Amino acid sequence: IRTVEFTGRLDVFPTAALLQWAGTERRTGALVVRSDGREKQLLFQVGRLVACLSSDPREHFGQYLLLHGHLEPPALVEALGHCRQHGRRLGASLAELGMLPEATIRRTLREAIEASVCDLFLWKHGLFYFVERTLPVEQLTCEPIEMMHLVLEGTRWIDEQARLRAILVSDQVVLSRGAAFAIEDGQPP
């Protein structure tokens, strides 16, 4: 039987406070946060973050690898097929197929998890609850991450968003990557 240990709203108990609570109290279990049809589960082992699962496909590990240039789409499709066929997680499949070195997999997985958690710092409203439970080994996806690092990084994200909002005041502005250009003789084309 799982019992809900702690529940509330993000506008009353923000992400930084939740992470500090889980770390200080050395909690093991899942912090589930929901807002606007999205859900994230932050998994803790003795007060340290070991995984972050998101319902948003844009935050899945494979998408992170594509976005940051570590994989091309055909390679991701092949690796995901391997995952389904052999019942493995994406990182294990990438290593088995020799698509990425294990050090790169560990580093990028940690970066993807940190980015997903830091995104929570930008959520203005939402509901959360913490469920105390033992985590299955297959859910422990990365080396444990200390809470203070995440709190500092999440706070940096809030500051960066405020700087961008000062320049791009409309929600209608969409940023995208432009075409790459070469600089010749120190002058852009």
Would you mind describing this structure in some detail?
Strand 3 (38-45) and strand 4 form a beta hairpin. Strands 1-5-2-3-4 form a 5-stranded antiparallel β-sheet, covered by helices on one side. It is an alpha+beta fold and 189 residues long. Helices cover 41% and strands 18% of the residues. The longest helix has 21 residues, at 147-167. The chain has helices at residues 15-24, 61-67, 73-86, 90-96, 102-120, 147-167, and strands spanning 4-9, 29-35, 38-45, 48-54, 127-132. The mean pLDDT is 87. The protein contains 6 helices and 5 strands; from the N terminus they run E-H-E-E-E-H-H-H-H-E-H. 24% of the residues are buried. The chain starts with a strand and ends in a 22-residue tail after the last helix.
Per-chain topology:
Elements: E1 4-9, H1 15-24, E2 29-35, E3 38-45, E4 48-54, H2 61-67, H3 73-86, H4 90-96, H5 102-120, E5 127-132, H6 147-167
Antiparallel strand pairs: 1-5, 2-3, 2-5, 3-4
Helix pairs in contact: 1-6, 3-4, 5-6
Measured on Cα atoms, how large is the radius of gyration?
A: 19 Å
Order of neighbouring strands in the sheet with most strands: 1-5-2-3-4
Give a count of the beta strands, DSSP E runs of length 2 or more.
5
Separation, N- and C-terminal Cα atoms: 65 Å
Unreliably modeled segments: none
Largest sheet: 5 strands, antiparallel
Shape: globular
The secondary structure category is: alpha+beta
Q: Number of helical runs?
A: 6
Instruction: Specify the helix fraction band.
Output: 40-55%
Question: Approximately what portion of the residues adopt beta-strand conformation?
Answer: 15-25%
H/E order of the elements?
EHEEEHHHHEH
Determine the mean pLDDT. 87
